[in-house]
Amino acid sequence: NTYHYATLYDRDRRIPVYSAYIYQPGSGKRPHTWWFVEPQLIGKNNLKDMERETVLIDQHKFTLEEIKESQAVLEDYNKMTGLDRGHLSPSGHQNSRESKTATFTLTNIVPQDSSLNNGQWNNYEVRMIPKMSKGCTTTYVITGAVPGNSDAVNGRVNRPSHIWSAGCCLVGAQPKRAWGAIAENNKNEVENLKLGELEDRLSELYGGKTVTLFNNACPRQ
């Protein structure tokens, strides 16, 4: 097994809290359109890799209800209107077919406002991050979602109130610059922030809990 990125997943709200990855864009095409779920979240079993729902049901004899208990499934997203399957770790920021495919698990996805996903958030992913990463030896990115007060469909999958992202640029082994961005998940607007400003905003949005990103290793100003 190869690890391509890391996700902290909220089993109750059925959305990721955040996904963290190294920005390594590659020239490979977007992979097939299959979507995967995570068998590790389904009780006790020996399956360690993401898999399609149909394979888990037909070959491994799980029921759809067992899969749905701890994570979102395709039917949840198929019933949503005005919302996209928004990647936290985007396939375009990975450099191989295998790593791009790994981003197509529903544990890396949140219900994201369609106009935002296809508009200013896409602009942030394809223009802002490459611009901020220029000259960096390594760029670390964390992208997350603040839980909202409502569910996107059927009382199962939370609709985040905000989508946020932070990056940290290293030259050699030294952190040289960092940045943040945040968007309300019902508007096609992205606010660019300093890392410290984003941490302060997230501390408010997460109910006063102190939020620090990159273990305080990157410039906040």
From TrEMBL:
InterPro entries: DNA/RNA_non-sp_Endonuclease_sf (IPR044929), Endo_G_ENPP1-like_dom (IPR001604), ENDOD1 (IPR039015), ENPP1-3/EXOG-like_nuc-like (IPR020821), His-Me_finger_sf (IPR044925). This is ENDD1 protein. Residues 1-213 form the DNA/RNA non-specific endonuclease/pyrophosphatase/phosphodiesterase domain. Residues 2-213 form the ENPP1-3/EXOG-like endonuclease/phosphodiesterase domain. It holds the Pfam family Endonuclease_NS. It comes from the Eukaryota. Signal peptide: none annotated. The gene is Endod1_3. GO terms for molecular function: hydrolase activity; metal ion binding; nucleic acid binding.
